[in-house]
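Try this one yourself first.
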């Protein structure tokens, strides 16, 4: 997928957005079927994205407009890839009904990394006024 110039500034999701049940379900339903997020491959994909942001010409910003500080991947997912792989597997696991996540994670840095990977690779994710909302006061993830 090729990004257009207006898509090259991406805003990090807020904790409120990531912890909203409806938004979390949307994040999960987009991420769960992706083979790129299977096991360690998801962590490696995130690391490659963060490494190549300059080459791709993507700028990541906080919701207040300041530049987002890219985290060291092992600070987010742990030093050993095994614990990160287990987390990724648990994140992608579906409930018995198959249409919602088996559990909800509240680890904001991990969820932000997955959200950023999806915004940069899967589709034109743009948060804006046309984005469907969970409520009148809540700004959803926007995909």
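Now uncover the answer:
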């Amino acid at each position: 997928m090729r990004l257009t110039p207006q898509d090259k500034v991406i805003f990090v999701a807020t904790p409120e957005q990531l912890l909203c049940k409806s938004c979390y379900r949307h994040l999960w339903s987009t991420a769960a079927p992706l083979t790129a997020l299977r096991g360690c491959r998801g962590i490696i994909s995130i690391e490659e994205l963060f490494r190549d942001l300059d080459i791709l010409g993507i700028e990541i910003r906080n919701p207040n407009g300041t530049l987002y500080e890219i985290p060291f991947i092992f600070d987010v997912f742990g030093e050993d890839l095994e614990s990160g792989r287990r987390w990724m597997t648990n994140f992608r696991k579906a409930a018995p009904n198959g249409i919602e996540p088996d559990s909800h994670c509240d680890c904001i840095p991990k969820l932000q990394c997955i959200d950023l990977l999806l915004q940069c690779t899967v589709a034109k994710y743009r948060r804006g006024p046309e984005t469907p909302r969970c409520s009148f006061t809540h700004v959803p993830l926007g995909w």
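Discussion: DSSP finds six helices and two strands in the chain. Confidence is low (pLDDT under 50) at residues 1-5.
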